[in-house]
Write a structure and sequence with these properties.
The protein has about 425 residues and is α/β, with parallel strands linked by helices. The protein has two domains: about 230 residues, 3-Layer(aba) Sandwich (Rossmann fold); about 170 residues, Glycogen Phosphorylase B (Rossmann fold). The protein has 16 helices and 15 strands. The strands form three sheets. The chain has a seven-stranded parallel sheet with strand order 3-2-1-6-7-8-9, with helices on both faces. It has a six-stranded parallel sheet with strand order 12-11-10-13-14-15, sandwiched between helices. A two-stranded antiparallel ribbon has the order 4-5. Helix 8 packs across helix 11, helix 9 packs parallel to helix 10 and helix 9 crosses helix 14. The longest helix has 19 residues. The protein is globular, with a radius of gyration of 22 Å.
């Protein structure tokens, strides 16, 4: 069985980390499976690749200060880079002849780069199944609905895709209703739940020994994800930490992220030199080990980080990104209401309120997250849906499918 996984990755680490998690689970649980990953992630080579997976690295596209797409490294117009990426993708599909293609987020791909591939599949490989994977929240409803209509995304799903899988819960964010899915699309959409993450490769004891954290001390982990816009969060934490009396019983580990600029990393390194009990590093591909060892986590609101925190049942303070999309803000607010962690709006963030919230989380009185209310079985459900498509099994009669039929009756008029 052959799968192609497409992850466009124009910004951050989120998409590629999520898709690699899915790939690893499928390979671990499915015999005789080969996966070809196609991605433009600039840090793809930094991740450990499981047996059975290979990848094609596309030329990088990024976003400039205005939020516009631009070539990240090559001296070419973004339109030329998109054309090159499109032809690479189509050639890979034609030669690999996958049984199924899993597409992350964008039905036509980044800047429409999948359009020619979709037409090719429709004409020459009509048996290949197409699945669109959506994270729990894309952006605010008004922005997403407008964007999907402008980019003809609903039509693409209706014409080309066999299934839409949502790695989230309708109880937290009902993507089908919020984004006004037409009935024809709603009926092939399935909520899978969030993606449970594995424990790291090192024990908490080993990590705390390596970091020289004594038994009577507490460890705070600060991780702004890829780090491209994480400087303010880390700087604010250090400012707040500096207000604590010395000596104190808190040690800090910061991962700045591989996409933080060298100039910003240098500034943070100089700040860290002035504050005891703080260590800073750029990146680890084993963040789960450090999360498990930490007493609380300070982070942004990216999908993967949140799944890791909740899988490990960790206390956390979440400061979501609010630009260029509202995805993290909505997720943080909805999950905070669910009692899963504390959150601070970035416009209200100060060193003082951040440290106060962290100290509250570190206290013995702080409650652990109510993770028992969260569905973390997304990975086996993704596998089940893929097997149903490839081997001709019907959709099960789960409550999720019943929910889709009932909750979308009001959407029938949009069809």
């Amino acid at each position: 069985m052959r799968l192609i996984v497409y992850s466009h990755d124009a910004y951050g680490l989120g998409n590629i980390r999520r898709m690699l998690t899915i790939c690893k689970y499928l390979l671990d649980t499915t015999p005789e499976l080969s996966i070809l990953l196609i991605s433009g992630s600039p840090v793809l080579h930094s991740f450990r690749m499981p047996q059975g997976l290979d990848y094609i690295k596309l030329p990088c596209l990024g976003r400039n200060e205005k939020g516009e797409l631009s070539a990240k490294y090559l001296r070419k117009d973004p339109q030329e880079i998109t054309k090159l990426r499109s032809e690479i993708i189509k050639t890979a599909v034609a030669n690999f002849e996958p049984d199924l293609i899993l597409v992350d987020k964008k039905p036509y791909g980044l800047q429409g780069e999948l359009t020619s591939t979709l037409s090719y599949l429709n004409k020459y490989l009509p048996e290949t199944k197409l699945v669109l994977l959506l994270r729990d929240i894309l952006d605010s409803p008004e922005v997403t609905i407008k964007d999907w209509h402008q980019n003809d995304s609903f039509r693409a799903i209706q014409r080309y895709y066999d299934r839409v899988l949502v790695v989230g819960m309708s109880e937290i964010f009902d993507l089908v209703q919020e984004y006004q899915f037409p009935y024809s699309i709603a009926k092939k959409t399935k909520f899978c739940g969030y993606l449970r993450r594995e424990y790291g490769s090192k024990s908490s004891q080993v990590i705390r020994q390596e970091l020289q954290v004594n038994p009577d001390e507490q460890l705070v982990l600060i991780t702004p994800g890829g780090g491209g816009d994480g400087y303010h969060l880390v700087e604010t934490y250090l400012q707040g930490l500096a207000t604590l009396p010395n000596p104190h019983k808190i040690k800090s580990l910061i991962f700045s992220g591989p996409e933080m600029s060298q100039d910003q990393r240098d500034k943070l390194a100089r700040l860290v030199e002035q504050i005891p009990y703080v260590q800073i590093s750029e990146f680890t591909d084993d963040i789960a080990s450090y999360m498990e060892a930490a007493d609380t986590v300070v982070c942004m609101g990216g999908y993967n980080t949140i799944c890791e925190i909740l899988s490990l049942n960790k206390k956390a303070v979440v400061i979501p990104r609010v630009n260029p999309v509202q995805e993290q803000l909505i997720r943080a607010q909805k999950m905070a209401e669910f009692g899963l962690f504390k959150t601070i709006h970035p416009e209200s963030l100060t060193g003082q309120n951040l440290i106060e919230t962290i100290l509250e989380q570190l206290s013995d009185r702080a409650r652990f997250p109510a993770v028992s209310r969260l569905d973390l079985d997304g990975l086996p459900r993704i596998k089940k849906s893929i097997c149903e498509l490839l081997f001709g099994k019907d959709l099960d009669s789960s409550s999720n499918w019943i929910y889709l039929k009932s909750s979308n009756q009001r959407l029938a008029s949009i069809k």
